Every structure is written in structure tokens, then in C-alpha cells.
Amino acid sequence: MNGITQPAPTSTHTLPRELLLTLLNTALRSGELRYARRLCTSWLAIYPGDLQVSLLNAHAYFKDKSSSIKLNALPILETLCRLDPEYLEAQELLAEVSQLAGSNSHLVAKACANALTHGHPVKTGKSGRISSWSKYVYEARSALSNVRAGDYQQIDKAEHFIHKALIENPDTPLAAVVHLRLIESKGSMPKLAIRSLAQIYHERWPDCLQFLLTLSNELMESGDSNQAVDMLHLAVSKDITGQVAKRMWGNHHQYASMWPVHIEAGSTSLNSPQNIPIPAVIASSMGWNQIPAAISGFDVPISTQQNPGIVGSEYYTAEVPQSEPVYASHSTSPVDDQQTISESSRMAQNELERLADELKRPHLVHEDGRFPIYVVFCTHAGLKTQYDSAAVQTINGELKKLVDVIRGHKINHELWGSMLFFADDPACTQLYNLQPVPYNDAWQLKLIIADLDAALEKRGERIGALLIVGGPEIVPFHNLPNPVEDADVDVPSDNPYAAKDNNYFISDWSVGRVSGGTSPDPGQLLSVLKKIANRYDANARKPSWYLRLIQFFRQLVKTGLSKKLSSFGYSAAVWRRASLSVFRSIGNSSDLLISPPVHACDSPSSTCTESIPPDYITQKASCLFLPDTQLAYFNLHGVPDASEWYGQSDPTQPEAGPEFPVAMRPQDIRNSGSAPRLVFTEACYGANISGKLVDEAISLKFLASGTHAVVGSTCISYGSLSTPLSSADLLGRVFWNLLQEGFSAGESLRRAKIHLTREMNQRQGFLDAEDQKTLLSFVLFGDPLAQPFRTRVTPKITPHLSDAVVRVPTVCERSCDGEVGSSVSLETISHLKSIVAQYLPGMNDAKVSLSHEHQACSNLCGNCGTGNKCAFSQANSKGQASIKSQRRVVTLSKNFEQANHTHRQYARVTLNERGKIVKMVVSH
Questions:
Q1: Which fold has domain 565-782?
Q2: pLDDT per residue over 699-751, tens digit each?
Q3: Which end of the chain has the lower number of beta carbons within 10 A, N or C?
Q4: Which residue ranges make up each domain of the chain?
């Protein structure tokens, strides 16, 4: 140990940071490690956020000969890398120290260092190559550098690689930092989305300065200056030189004035840096021992060479907090964060909605910047209840192929990830710190999906679409209470699987289901899965431009020769007017078939050629022939115990034959790859698949024949007789419009339900019983990302932000025991029957029931749910407002027996407080 030959500087002078760095570097070179550590500790007691001095302090420990002293550098470096994961020197030293300590974390640090330099994967002797995410991060950073240099075509490359890195979920914020920088660089992403993503990452890594600075900047731009300034002050205290801010925004960024220009330490105690005696070897190295008098005034030549990442800052007038521990991990969220952010979010949301409307791009309001994940969802135990072990193994293999072909590809102009998730398999759930749940408990399955989305959020991802594999025997429906007093005991629904909370009316992501029926033979299910995978594989392998041109002309010739219809409609005669209003969204009125006269018959319909009979369009032939179309719309009758769909005659245009002719059967669907791509059916029980084989359900037969997606109701559905459209008719028209705008089938259905909610809320102030049942009962079978069009529109498929929730006020009409309601006169009932009979023949002797709409039950009501709160008016509602409704609902019902099947007909007439008809719907 060298003797101390020079006294400490006098206490009347300050110690500039430049001189401190010179002393520290000299001490490290000369081996005066104890002095270097004392000097760092003294300085960091004043400026705990000096990252470069902390790094030099770690070097002073690591250079020591004692192994135990070397390891003191570990907590220092871990804190540095949490604060600034892009600090290359800290990551490199952390890799060395943690390896010396025998910690596996050295692999992460080594991978981070590689990602910041050359991108080589980390290798170990035991497991070979690992941490391939480091190469992906390196490639993404390189592409982003090119983007900033003006090569904007590199943005897709950066997005591709950073998504692959995020999928590996590295235990470091480095990949997330690059992801956030990518989102900012895209330019088209709304500010609210950037702020939302920064908030998510900030909550997972609260010490990371990149997230703190980005969030503060977004808050500042949204007008929340108080919150932003608080966060910037916190960033200054954690990084006193502003090295992270300068790396992000440049040396002269708009907040540079908040950082101090001159950083120096005053002599406040004997432990102040300038009062620590200087070893003789250091003084000799600096030439101070030759001119001792110069020491007291620090009037000596000093080296100002610094770390390339540290640059001088500007003057800062506010106080820097000095009470924080040097290496303590502390929260970065002020006490009132949640309330303040919520208020600013609402202001930003209103402004974003205004701008989105002006740009005619309303989807911008809900973009949040996280990568969408296509979640293929199933249960092992559920599969084993229907299939043998060999079949289950084959299905698992096909599911993995589907996930692999989707992952990393652009779908509907958006880059997607994918994952296979078995809710009852610990090997799957433990990857996300979740516990497996029973395969037959729908509520627990719903909860684990919501928890999975929360786990993905921490990785910068989200559930973008959910594909449920299997019928209700494998993954059960949610049997929700029926809000309408009709023949259905409950409403089978997949809505809860798409909701983060208890609002089942509004989904947070699109959801679809594929099933091969109840057969123990897995062939049908495997066929559907293979067709979905093949479509994605074909889209990923685009042919060259000249081959695409040839295919275009071939398709054009085929279309012209075969008179191929782009759309096809089929309606019961009694609903012709309402059906035309829906069908006009996708086709001409001449393409809408009416039953009667058209009906299913033992004609060549199932074995005929691809060509369409000449008299098909004009409907001269009465036998059904399903053409080769892209879109198919059905508004027919359905019953729960039959596989057929039925027509119904129009009383104004009577037809000879049965009242409910068989309009369509499963065998009428050709299994030749020419089935319609998208099907929307309003038929009652059009999506009823419980306990049915493929040949016993038209919806399943469509899937098996190649249809991409089928939308229908699992139970009784309701629709209009004419305009204005409501319930299923309104849902169908909006669905077709959204599909043609470029949205996928699942997203079109999700948004159509939102539109129906808003429209009915605007019309009547709440959702009545048939509105609620429509939202719950309509489900999608098939691929939720199916999209038959290649449009110029590039909508984003995104969930709702928490502050952009759709208001869902609801009422109940269930009759409670002992409840006294207003009556309707016999004269009024007779008048209503005569009105209904104009549209529905045979309803003059229908059974009549009366109910009134109310927000809450007056007493404990077994019909409404589970006690003193009405299950239909208060549960499942976000932001429920007080509703005063005096409307009454008169329901006319009658059963028609035909061919061993019961056709239940319902007509629901809603009267206002003055007895005026305000709404009339009928069952389909």
C-alpha cells in the first residue's frame, strides 16, 4: 500500500465531476482500489444516480484480488443494468461477475452484451446454443438504425426480429426497450398506444429509465405536465448525467435543461470526496507532487476524457433528491399515478377519437402497440374424453403445425405471433406462472385465459385472437342465464372466453371455435385444422408477380364463364324485407333466394357439376342449388332437434305446400372445396352443435366442406320483420359491412356487437332482453382471422383500452314471484294480435304473456339470478347508469307441429308508457 503523501484538498473548494473521473481512472490504473471505492462511495452519497461512477465503483471491486470483495460488484451492476439495459460496459462486466458468482444470470447479461454489439448467440458447454433472442434484438436494432438514417423499408424487418425476440421472453427489459423504440419509429402509431405500451413495460420494469422517460414524454405531450415533470425529476435523480435521455433523444433534447450542466461536490463533511486523502502514486501520476501548492485550488491540468456515452449536460435549477439508497430498488410511481393517468387518458382519448374521426380511421383509437398473439386453446382431458390416445397425439401434432405456420407471418397486414395453450396441462401453464384448471369448468377456463392475457402483457404481447379447439364436450360453452322468457333454459356462449372481466356483451378479442362433431373419429377435426393451416401456409408463400398475374386472369375467365356469384342469400319468405336490407350489403336483391318457393329436394343438388343451372338466378327452378360463392347469408328457421333449416310462407303471397318447407339440409352442402368462405346465419339454433355429428349440423358441415368461418346463434334468435333493423338483422348487416372494410370475421363480429350495443343504447337508452340475447348467443365457428377479401384497407385488430370501454346499460324483463306489474287491456292485446297476424299467419290464437322492463328486482327473485341483484340488469355491466323504464313487453307464442318437429314461433312487441308500439321482433 502506497503512503499518503498529499493532504486532502481544502474544504473551501468544490470537486468538479471531471476531476473526480480523472482521479478514479488514475486510481484504477495504478491499483489504488480502496481509494477508488472510498471516492465512489462518497460521491454516490451525493449523486446516487451517477451511472458512470457506479460502473467505476464496480470495477474497483472486481479488480480486487479477494474473491469475496470481487462479488460486491454484483449488486451494483445488477442495479445499473436494470436502470439502463443498453449500458454495454455494465452488461459486459455483469456477465463476468455473475459467472464468477456461479449465477446463471451471466448468460442473460452475456446475451445482452452480444445484442448490443454483434448479435452472436450465447453458447454453453452443456446445452449448446441458447439465447437466440440476442441475435434478433441485434438485427432489430440494426434495422432501426437504418430507419433513422432514412431507410424506412427496414421497419418491417425490425418488427419481424423484435417480435421473435419477445416470443422468447428474455429475463431483461432490453428486447422491450427496442420494441418500444420500434413503435415510436413507425410514425403511424397513435400517441395513446405508445403511452399505453410504455406504461405496461414501466409497470413490469419500474427501474428501467427508457420506459420512465418515454412515459413521461407521452404524458407531457398529452397535456399531463405535472405527472410528466415528476417523472422527469425522478429520471434525473436516477441518471444525473442524462446518458439514457441523450441516447434516446440526442444531446440537445427538449428536456435537457432539467439536467445539471456542472456537477460538483461541495465540502460538507470530512467524508466529502475532496476531503479523502489522495494516495501518493495518484498524485505522482498527475504531477501534483511536484507543485503541492496547486492542489488546494485544483489548478492542475486534468484529463477530461470520458466514457463515450457520457456527455455534458445543461443547468438544472430544481433540487435533486438525495435521500435514496445508492443501490436500492424503489418504485417509480407517485402516489396519485393511477388517478392522474386516468384523467389524462380520458382527455387524450377524446382528442384521439376526434382525430380518428377526421382521418376516417376510428380503429386508431384502440391501438395499443402490443404484438397480437393467435392463441390456440384446448384441454388435454377434454380431448381424451372424446378421442383415443393415438388420436389425441395426432391432434396435438396438427395443432403444433398450425401454430408454427401462423407464427411470425403477417395476417391481414399485421404481424402475428401464435401459441398453443392447454389450460389443464401444468407444462403449459407454468410457463406463465399459472395453475392448471379443470377441463370442464367453463368459469375457471375463462379466468385462466384472462390471466394468460395479463401474463402476455408483461412481454409486450396480447391475445389478438382465440381459437377454441373442440366442441362443448372438449371445451364447454358458458351456459349463461337467458334474459328472454322463451323456451331456452340458458344461452350457450363463447363470449366470456373473450372478455377480461364480467362484461360478456363486449369482447376484448375475437374468438372462434372449431369442432369435428361428437364422433370419436378425429378425421373431421383434423381436416378442419389442416385446411386452416394450409390457407396460412399458402398466404405465406406468395408466388412471383407474373404467376399471380396469370392466376388473376384465370380467375377472371372462370368467373365470366361460370357466372360465379360473389354472394348468395337465402331467406324465409316471411322475412323477405328485413333480409333484403341485410343482404344488400354484399349482393343484389336478385341473388337472394326465397323459401318458399325454393326448397331442398332430392335433386342433383349434391352431385351436380360446378356450373350453375341457367334458370338458377331467375329462380325458375324450385330446388335448392348452393352456388360457389365467397359470402353466404341465411335467414331461415331452425329448431333444436333437427338438422334442417326451414322456410316460412309470406301471408301476403301464399304458396302451396307446408307452412315451414325444408329449405336446406346438411347434405345440400357440397364437400368439394367450393363451399362459401364466410357464412352468416340468423336461423334459430344455427350454431347449435351440442351432441351433434357433422352431418347433423349445417354449421359443422360448412366447416367440414371448407368454409372459413360460420357465424350463428346457439339458441333462439330474434330479428325484424322490416326496417329499422334490430337484433340479429342489425348484427348481420354491420358484420358484412365491416368484413368488406377489411376486418377479419372474428373482428367484424366483435365490432358488430359493439355497434349493436351503441345503436340500441342510442335508440332506447339501454339493451333490452332480445338485444342481450343476440349479443350472447351469436358465436363464430372456424378461424377468427378469416378474411375472404384482399382489400386496400389495413385495419388493426386490437382490443379495447381500459379507458375506452363501451357503456352497456341493461334492463331485465323477467317476472319475479309476487311482483306486481301494469296490465294491458284485452283490446290492446287483440290489436297486437291483428298486427302480428299480418306478418305471421296463425298467431291469432297465440299464447300471450306480459312483462315489464326494470333495472333491479324488487325482491329476491329466483328467475333473475342469485338474489337481490338482477343478473340481467346489473351484472355484466361496465359503468352501469340508473335507468328508468316503463316499457312493457307483450310476447305472443305458438307451437306448430310439422313432420315430427315442433316449430316455436315468438313475436315480441314492446310498448312505451303510452301504449305505443316502439319495437317488434320475431323468432327465427
A1: Rossmann fold (3.40.50)
A2: 999 999 999 999 999 999 999 988 899 999 999 999 999 998 889 999 999 99
A3: N
A4: 119-188, 190-262, 365-533, 565-782, 826-923
Residues 137-164 as b/e (b if ≥16 CB within 10 A, e otherwise) read bbbbbebbeebeeeeeebbebbbbbbbb
Give the number of other Cβ atoms within 10 Å of residue 20's Cβ.
Answer: 25
Residue 896 DSSP label: E
- 39 DSSP β-pair partners: none
Nearest CA to 796 among 222, 332, 361, 287?
361
Contact 749, 797 (CB under 8 A): no
3-class SS string, 595-628: ECCCECCCCHHHCCCCCCCCCCCCCCCCECCCCC
Three-class SS of 752-812: HHHHHHHHHHHHHCCECHHHHHHHHHEEEEECCCCCCCCCCCCCCCCCCCCCCCCCCCECE
Written as nine digits, the cell of 917 is 308500439
Q: Which three cell numbers stand for residue 815?
A: 317476472
Q: Taking the mean position of all CA atoms in its chain, how far away is CA 766?
A: 27
488-547 per-position pLDDT tens digit:
999 999 999 999 988 888 899 999 999 999 999 999 999 999 999 999 887 766 555 445
The torsion of the CA quartet 38, 39, 44, 50, rounded to 10 degrees, works out to -130
Does the global pTM surpass 0.85? no
Integer-rounded Cα Rg, in Å, for the chain is 34
Pair 148, 154: CB distance under 8 Å: no
Q: What are the residues whose beta carbons fall under 8 Å from the beta carbon of 791, sequence distance 6 or more?
A: 740, 741, 742
Q: In sequence order, what are the residues at sequence separation of 6 or more whose Cβ sits closer than 8 angstroms to the Cβ of residue 605?
A: 623, 624, 625, 626, 668
Report the CATH architecture of 365-533: 3-Layer(aba) Sandwich (3.40)
Contact 615, 662 (CB under 8 A): no
Q: What are 902-919's pLDDT values in tens digits?
A: 889 999 999 988 888 889
Residue type, 544: S
DSSP string, 687-714: T--TT--GGG-HHHHHHHTT-SEEEEES
* Other beta carbons within 10 Å of 712: 28
